[in-house]
Amino acid sequence: MKKILFVNLLLVAAACSSLKVTYDYDKQANFANYKTYSYTNDALNLPIGDLNRDRVINAIDAEMTAKGFSKSDSPDVLIDLHVKAEEKVDATATTTGPGYGYGGPWRYGYGGGFSTTSINYYEYVEGTLFVNMIDSSTEKIVWQGRGTKTIDEDASASKREQNINYAIKQIFTKYPPK
Q1: Distance CA 160, CA 54 (A)
Q2: For domain 2-88+123-174, which CATH number applies: 3.30.160.670, 3.40.50.11540, 2.60.120.260, 3.10.20.70?
């Protein structure tokens, strides 16, 4: 249940974190030949909440249309989606002091003094969405885009949609590869 909660929140990103986008592709693939697409069953059943899954699919449909693709029952490429959520912890140490040592600055000797170090822990979830483009005839991945961002568990529905649309748009900025 905890994993599904993390995955449901995948693209609901925190305002203070930035989206990291990477991509990879098959240099032998002829991307000019790809004009139609469809989704794999795994993509259509992505293990996230129904509302977020619909948001992701709609955002990908918009980007695929913008790239000149159309949906088809016999597509050139299949879109496959995967998600990964990872719990992370950052620690920040803050040291206060030191003083002047025994007797303060007006006495003899400057010792090491006393200082205090406090450590603050920040726990968060980092989510990654993988968008794989699979050549239908060879069944091999020809392009993969990835978006990674810290998850904001308290985002509103409109902010979730805005974040998902932004993430998908950024993932597809490197398609087709040049």
Answers
A1: 12
A2: 3.30.160.670
